[in-house]
Amino acid sequence: MTTATTHDGGSTARAVHPVSGGPIVQLPTAFGEFVAQAWTDLATGAEHLAVSSPKVPLAGKAPLVRLHSECLTGDVFGSYRCDCGEQLAYALELIREEGGTLLYLRGQEGRGIGLANKIKAYALQEAGFDTVEANEQLGLPVDARCYKAAAQILAEMGLHEIRLLSNNPDKQNRLAAAGVKVVEMVPTEVPSREENLRYLQTKKDRMDHRLTLGDTEPAGTHAAAGTFDLEQD
User: Fold this and answer.
1) pLDDT (tens digit per residue) in 101-148
2) 102 pairs with which residues across the strands?
3) Measured distance CA(97)–CA(155) in Å, rounded
4) What are the φ/ψ torsions at residue 227 (nearest 5 degrees)?
5) 86 in a known ligand binding site
6) Which of 28, 51, 69, 212 has its CA at a distance of 20 to 30 angstroms from the CA of residue 101?
7) Could you give the count of Cα atoms lying within 13 Å of 59 in the half-sphere of its Cβ?
């Protein structure tokens, strides 16, 4: 057990989520040189990957951290139905430049409902439901993800205070509850597309994501990795 301080100055016991880390190895990528470490959630068996920049953050700055939920359709196939693959590329670019870690969380496909259910939800979206309504029609949570293992992995890596690369304030709140202090939210908004605009609008309106949706790219265009700068956030 570990302890967390309450608002009144007292402390409360907080259970440590069991995780186990493997060896640290070099990971040269299209985005630059990184080091990688696989982690196993001993409670669920899920395997996650920490991809870290060897660059040390500037003095006085907390490291950048991205909790990236696995998205096969977006990360691997470049689906335009979401912004996941482009957020992944954008986060790796920033982490390489400024120092920090991207924690790739496997088993969180479709905000935790799984790949097959995500495709079922897509079918419902094509019938007119938004992403929240589609999950509800399937009798599934709108967001079934758990960040306890992620928080413990960050703690094991010594990342107790971070700058969180995310548009989702729920991640900040849940990390704080698990003992990781988010000192800054760094937006990861990338240009929207005609194919994902309704999806992103739903996340903004119904899930409180911090999105401006000011830029929309024409259907069929694809921005290359590394072309998103801070002015676009």
Assistant:
1) 999 999 999 989 999 999 999 999 999 998 889 999 999 998 898 999
2) 51, 66
3) 23
4) -95, 0
5) no
6) 212
7) 0
For residue 176, the one-letter residue type is A
Quick one: residue 11, left, alpha or beta (phi over 0 = left, psi -120 to 50 = alpha)? beta
Q: Is 109 labeled as ligand-binding?
A: yes
As a residue count, the chain comes to 233
CA separation for the pair 46, 114 (Å, rounded): 13
Q: What single-letter amino acid sits at 31?
A: F
First-last CA distance in the chain: 39
Cβ neighbors of 39 (< 8 A, separation 6 or more) are 19, 20, 21, 22, 47, 48, 49, 50, 149, 153, 156
Residues designated catalytic: 143, 145
Structure tokens given for 77: 């196939």
pLDDT at 218 exceeding the cut of 80: no
Closest-CA residue to 142 (of 178, 167, 118): 118
Q: Is 66 marked as a binding-site residue? A: yes
Residue 213, by phi and psi: left (phi above 0), alpha (psi -120 to 50) or beta? Answer: left
At 20 the pLDDT is 97
Q: How far is CA 43 from CA 20, 40, 102, 130, in A?
A: 10, 9, 22, 33
Q: Which residues contact 162 (CB under 8 A, 6 or more apart)?
A: 62, 63, 64, 65, 100, 154, 175, 180, 181, 182, 183
3-state secondary structure of 111: helix
Report helix, strand or coil for 48: strand
Question: Binding site annotation covers 174?
Answer: no
Q: Supply the pLDDT for residue 131.
A: 83
- Using left for φ > 0, alpha for ψ between -120 and 50, and beta otherwise, residue 49 falls in beta
